[in-house]
Amino acid sequence: MTYIFHIRRQERPRSRAYWQDFSYDGQPGDSVAQALMAINEDSPLQDRNGQDTAPIRWQRSCLVRKCGACAMVINGVPSLACSTFLSALSGPVVTLEPLSLFPVVTDLVVDRSFLYDRLKDWQIWLDQPAAASPWTWKNRYESARCLLCGCCLEVCPNASPQSLFAGAAAAVQAYRILSQETGDSPHGRQLRQAYRHQYFEHCGQSMACQEVCPARLAVTDLLACANSLALWKHSKW
Predict the structure, then answer these.
(1) Paired sense of beta strands 104-106 and 18-25, if any
(2) Residue 25 pairs with which residues in a beta bridge?
(3) Residue at which a domain ends, from 78, 110, 142
(4) Rounded distance between C-alpha atoms, residue 189 and residue 191, angstroms
(5) Helix/strand/coil for 194
């Protein structure tokens, strides 16, 4: 079956974006990642108009839904190219765009520094020995599966390139640290304050993040646990 890949391309940061079409002869069981690798194998690479063009730039690493590197917008939905199969897409046209909340580096490659910088701002790390409460083990394991891919931010109505709001990705990481903190340390207080002012006060609870999460995290449960640790359990109210 012949698929048409309609890809938004951009040579470099802040350069003009344009669309380019490519043909791919494949099977419904192929993933978008497989298709991109096969398209780039052509040398020289030509688009559907027969024009020579540069290879399609995109990120990948594990290709088994473990790293989140291949996140992009596929037919309007933020997804991982490695776990999105052509059989799940409607029709033979596959539209690929970079995630819009992050600066474009080139083609489908984006710079996720914004998300990582928020984790640094919140000080999402342990500064003392971790607690080992058995009742947190399941949710801590669940939170550790977050890929930090950025798909949740793409659909969040409260996120924007101008905002410090880092969405569920940061909140889930905060829970993992808060659930291991012992006592009422200055570091823990700083993290709880950051959680309140940069996440809780801005989250509209649309939960669109859970709908698109490639790791299928139980985001609602994790955020409820994070709220309990960051707000209610330590509240002076």
Answers:
(1) unpaired
(2) 2
(3) 110
(4) 5
(5) helix
Token pair listed for 204: 């509209």
**pLDDT tens-digit map of 102-149:** 999 999 999 999 999 999 999 999 888 887 678 888 998 999 999 999
CATH value at residue 165: 1.10.1060.10
237 within a domain of the structure (yes/no): no
Q: How many residues does the chain have?
A: 237
**Structural domain tally of the chain?**
2
Q: Which of 225, 234, 230, 199 is nearest to 138 (CA)?
A: 225
Rounded to a whole number of angstroms, the distance between the first and last alpha carbons of the chain is 62
Alpha helices in the chain (DSSP H): 32-40, 113-121, 137-144, 151-155, 167-178, 186-195, 208-212, 219-227
Measured in whole angstroms, the distance separating CA 54 from the mean position of its chain's CA atoms is: 26
| 43-102 pLDDT tens trace | 999 999 999 999 999 999 999 999 999 999 999 999 999 999 999 998 899 999 999 999
Domain end (from 110, 126, 161): 110
99 and 130 housed in the same domain: no
What's the CA angle centered on 146, arms 9 and 93, to 5 degrees? 35
In whole angstroms, give the CA distance from residue 174 to residue 170: 6
Closest CA to 65 of 215, 165, 184: 215
Please provide residue 177's backbone torsions phi and psi, each rounded to the nearest 5 degrees: -80, -45
